[in-house]
Amino acid sequence: MSIAEKVVAIAQDARQAALAMARLSTTTKNDMLRRMAVALENGAPDLVVENLKDLEAGRLKGLSAAMLDRLMLDDKRIRGIADALREIAALPDPVGEVTKMWKRPNELMVGKMRIPLGTIGIIYESRPNVTADAAALCLKAGNAVVLRGGSEAIHSNLAIAKILQDILKEMNIPTAALSLIPFTEREGVLEMLKQEESIDLIIPRGGESLIRFVVENSRIPVIKHYKGVCHVFVDQSADFDKAEQIIINSKTQRPGVCNALETLLIHKDVAAEFIPKIAASLTALGVELRGDEAFRRYAPSATPATEADWYAEYLELILACRVVDDIDAAIAHINRYCSLHTESIITSDYSRAQRFIREVNSSCVMVNASTRFADGGQLGLGAEIGISTTKLHSFGPMGLEDLTTTKFIVYGDGQVRE
Amino acid sequence: MSIAEKVVAIAQDARQAALAMARLSTTTKNDMLRRMAVALENGAPDLVVENLKDLEAGRLKGLSAAMLDRLMLDDKRIRGIADALREIAALPDPVGEVTKMWKRPNELMVGKMRIPLGTIGIIYESRPNVTADAAALCLKAGNAVVLRGGSEAIHSNLAIAKILQDILKEMNIPTAALSLIPFTEREGVLEMLKQEESIDLIIPRGGESLIRFVVENSRIPVIKHYKGVCHVFVDQSADFDKAEQIIINSKTQRPGVCNALETLLIHKDVAAEFIPKIAASLTALGVELRGDEAFRRYAPSATPATEADWYAEYLELILACRVVDDIDAAIAHINRYCSLHTESIITSDYSRAQRFIREVNSSCVMVNASTRFADGGQLGLGAEIGISTTKLHSFGPMGLEDLTTTKFIVYGDGQVRE
User: In B, which residues are within 8 Å of A23 by CB distance?
Assistant: First the structure.
């Protein structure tokens, strides 16, 4: 069989296995995840051996130290992966939940029941933990999963997948419910993206170039976000201490992630008082400031911002800063330049808080909170399979529920249509 | 400007207008729909004149009497369209609803708020009422809408769109919130399907060939269903009178629609008693029966069914019939041959009713009810914009809520991430 033929077979087998997955009881699924956790811990010595092959190949290919660190598995990290599976086992099962139910005038009872989506394809880069994490979330929601990891992690991924599949086999669950595409060639992923009859949804996890490649080549719906250009707007009524804490946290707590702050907007009435204060704090923390003219009047050491800065996702200690006339101008700036990720207003004014919540179009809109809370775990979804900045199906951080859909259920007693 | 350039401009203007639509109050939207209803009634004489041009062109092109009837507008039908708009005005506004809200351990309040999807593209065939109906649903849910109707109805569609746009103008709402592609060339629809930066969702309404054309050519997500191969399963515990009424209603009340019954499954234990009875009733109503060998033992006048019959959406008075060993065989048959539309079990057994609800994969699963209830209006959605048999975003009949998505809203008091 060619690579393409094997990928087609994997996808078709996954489609079949999805029917079996959808019927598993919650108890069985949780038992499965806990056994997988134990098996990963027991398999740690073998996993480390396989991981060394990837690390060795990575060093020969000249991967950066940061990349090699992402790739590395040791006992502690493997215990972390196992614990993540136990946490997923402990989450409520979304499948079977009747999200609402109502009665029609003819006494029909009509409801909507959560069911698994079917088969989920995950395409990801170098972190081998995704192999276990993403698979566990898909399986918990009653789906089959087809994984395609980065070529740098292929030995680690195959070893993890094998350990998880052995548990499926042990429990008489079709092993095709969890498949890993065993090829590193581009042909394999391209073929996977054509299997719209077998795979219901593709979730890419990685950098913007990976995501664009997937979107451009997929016939299957893709849920994705390209970047996070997150804003904080300091309103004229803001508590300056809270504002400062939130800005510092949003920008510096972990600057390299998509929910970090990239653009700060400040109301003109508080510019003179607040800008020198926040500029000093941020500069002391090593943040480079790029401001418009009005901002630089109160922070002369800031460099001039250009139009490109308003679109920029720096992912490092750089912050674009702008003074705005009022909340209308702030909302207009955000709705024009944002990436529909996360925006926060700092205010003590009730009406403007509510207006910001209502009128900002992003997937996460906050009042008096750090943008860093835009995360499935932090928001209480239990675990995160990804973030969507496109509105269809899911918008914002995605948890287990986003790996399900609903069907209509109708309880009658002989009703016919007139 | 070329056709393509004009379509791009229409889509971009719609994207802008969507921002204004999203901010309209419920009162304004309802007022808008009621004014549109009055304007359609007042414009009836002009509408009829424009409609006559389409009818005349249709006659010259040799359209069938059924097609011409679908195309035809008279005072009564125009009043019907206006009444439909008033009904949509009376429906609850989904936008702004907070579907749930919860508290995090750090006292953050996190919720999900319904917001409009953005811009919806509707591609449809000959019925001009869709121009008003579909547009009204999209606008009520706070979206902009780009319509592309069939070439046979172009004069009627343009006249209806003009009347509706005049109301938008009168109310200072951007008229680009409701656009009709004014070209009948294929180029126009192909270009529309490429505007993924401006249009969020495409809903095709029409026959299978239209839908396949849209799916094959769209870069925008498409929500669709190709066909409805609906099943009724008569369980061994079924009340025969209810079973008979439901089967007759499902098959004959309106055989040409997607929620009509196409395949009847009967438990072997009741075959001898029930088949002669139901076969006689259906035959008396003009239904042609195609049965497997076991079915024909008790209904000798039925013709033999072939494998193709299990996949068939007849849309006329033909019914495929099969005897099955048990509920497992019934569910297996359905999950293999169905189109994920609607299936109903006739039973008085509690456990099997619940198993059927749980294990059948279709978008509408019923107990003791006619498949003809699989309709947005009948299920209580208020109105129907379409039916989805793909699981992403919506599954089953779609109402106003399906034209929205949700964003996360977060109310904090200075929280930062540790």
Answer: 359
